[in-house]
Amino acid sequence: MSFIWAEFLTIANYLYQEDHGLPQEAAFRSAVSRAYYAAFRHARDFAQKYQHYSPKGSGEDHYFLINHFKNRKEIRIGIDLDTLRKDRDQCDYDAVVNNLDSIAQDSLTRAAKIINSLNK
User: Fold this and answer.
1) Domain range summary for the chain, segments of one domain joined by +
2) How far is CA 64 from the centre of its chain?
3) Are the C-beta atoms of 26 and 92 separated by less than 8 Å?
4) Which of 26, 25, 37, 29 has the alpha carbon at shortest distance from 85?
5) Helix (H) or strand (E) holding 119
């Protein structure tokens, strides 16, 4: 059975809660990362199955998938994926992330929006 990538969003939502006893900044950064991968992999699988998208199997697939949706006139999905990717990069690589709470909350919302719109 294939892994259901959208389930990462459940983990991201859990990490965003403040009552789990985990270090808050690490949990919020991880929530942003999991939210991105939930949306990215769900969108990638959808595009492969229904839109003849073929990933290259490299790091560039992140950009290729964003452009795939923008080129198909599903611009909102492309923009939201790009925003999620940039926020994930910031949370994974930058020592200081301003407005982390807001970024985490926004990431959860964007990822859910992408997943829900592709499930229709």
Assistant:
1) 5-119
2) 15
3) no
4) 37
5) helix 100-119
pLDDT in tens, 23-76: 999 999 999 999 999 999 999 999 999 999 999 999 999 999 999 999 999 999
Based on DSSP, count helices (H) and strands (E) in the chain, helices before strands: 5, 0
Q: What's the chain's average pLDDT? A: 96
One-character DSSP codes across 36-50: HHHHHHHHHHHHHHH
Q: Does the predicted TM-score (pTM) go above 0.85?
A: yes
84's tokens: 């999620």
Residue 1 has pLDDT above 80, yes or no: no
Distances (CA, A) of 10 to 22, 39, 99: 16, 12, 22
Q: What is the DSSP letter of 89?
A: H
Q: Hey, CA dihedral for 109, 21, 101, 68, is it positive or negative?
A: negative
CATH number for the domain whose boundaries are 5-119? 1.20.120
Q: Which residues have CB under 8 Å from 9's CB, separation 6+? A: 34, 35, 38, 39, 108, 111, 112, 115
